[in-house]
Write a structure and sequence with these properties.
mainly beta; seven-stranded mixed β-barrel
Length: 150
């Protein structure tokens, strides 16, 4: 009986220690990701890249979905909305590695909702045509990415 009491005490102590640890939520509000719908099909990536070239004040956000990918380029970036039709942003979506299968945005907007020293976040939507004359529509785009400065 003397041997069981210390083991039981140790077991209870371990249980209390594990249960008293602060638990974080299963879905953090600042998760790094990029998501969109291309012609109605949902795509998500947990590894977007956001390159900020300080000397040029330009930002490029990229997301890969297997062999497909999206790219958003903005000059003189800040919190606000940038229009593709006014040449304030360039947005593309590639469905294959060959450039002829890349939709080049002709209409659409990207909105930067947060731009800090370490992260960038926003929303986007655009439509465009590839070199084969096929149309592509990107909707419900959103991103939260770590900022890499150059």
């Amino acid at each position: 009986m003397k041997r069981i009491k210390p083991v039981l005490f140790l077991l209870i102590l371990c249980i209390l220690a594990f249960n008293s640890c602060k638990k974080s939520g299963s879905s953090p509000t600042n998760a790094i990701n990029i998501s969109l719908k291309i012609n109605g099909t949902a795509k998500t990536s947990s590894a977007p890249v956001a390159d900020y070239i300080v000397s040029e004040k330009s930002l490029q956000i990229m997301g890969a979905f297997g062999t497909e990918g999206v790219s958003i380029m903005i000059q003189n970036v800040k919190v606000g909305t940038f229009d593709v039709a006014k040449d304030e942003a360039i947005m593309t979506y590639s469905v294959k590695p060959d450039f002829q299968y890349t939709y080049l945005g002709t209409t659409g907007k990207v909105t930067i909702t947060s731009f800090t020293d370490t992260t960038v976040a926003g929303t986007f939507a655009f439509s465009g045509t590839d070199m084969n004359g096929l149309n592509g529509v990107v909707t419900e785009g959103k991103f939260q990415a770590k900022l890499y400065k150059q």
